[in-house]
Amino acid sequence: MLKHIFLIIVLICCYFLWEQRPVRYGGGIIVESKPMVTHIAFPNSIETDNYIITPRYQIEGKVRVIANKRYWFDDMRHVSSVDLLLAWDRMSDEDLLRRMLVKIDDRSYHVQMTKPPFQRGNIHDNLIMAHTIPATERIQDKLKSIRRGQLIHFTGYIVDIENRIGNEWISPVRDHWPQQRSSQWVWFEDLEIIEDPVK
To answer: pTM here?
Structure first.
């Protein structure tokens, strides 16, 4: 009996690892443009039972997900259970990504070079760390299914969050663009997982 239970656990783990395997497209930049960010002059807040979510900027674009993390025990998991590290331009290039270790840990991201030297310039210019807030359960399911390396097209809002006792979580934005290496709370209004990188 124990052997059968162990075998079932192994099969479940194998299936989970297979479903989460990274998506690879080969060398070359596959997302050229950064997302478009537009300031909202007169935002309308979105209220839930426990939080007030205020859109500050509209955001839309096609990006590559180079790291993701799902939270099970985090204090904000009921608001945002999935973090995504979104990339474009040279950070969407498989040749560059192969020389890096990229991971998300404790609501922040870390990039470590494994094979220097690398292209000049600041790699963080081509990254946004998004704490995702789904507008619907369908989008939540999509966010949970995203694999590292996939391309997505999304529309939504960079938001600030306040709970009913006055605690705030602010998305740092300067000159209509997220501050470098900052973490943004992003309301996902729509989300498409792109299977064909040519689109």
So the answer is: 0.86
Tell me the residue type at 138.
Answer: R
For residue 59, the Cα-to-chain-centroid distance in whole angstroms is: 13
Cβ contact 112:100 at 8 Å: yes
Q: Which amino acid is at 5?
A: I
Nearest-angstrom CA–CA distance, 1 and 52 = 51
Torsion-angle region of 89 (φ positive above 0: left; ψ -120 to 50: alpha; else: beta): left
121 occurs within a structural domain: yes
Q: Is 199 a domain residue?
A: no
Q: How confident is the model over 175-187, as pLDDT tens digits? A: 889 998 899 999 9
Q: Judge whether 168 and 162 are in contact, CB under 8 Å.
A: yes
Beta pairing, strands 183-194 & 127-134: parallel
Give the number of domains in the chain.
1
φ, ψ at 102 (rounded to 5°): -120, 130
- The residues, any chain, with a CB within 8 Å of residue 196's CB and separated by 6 or more, are none
pLDDT in tens, 95-146: 888 888 899 998 999 998 876 666 556 889 999 999 999 999 999 999 999 9
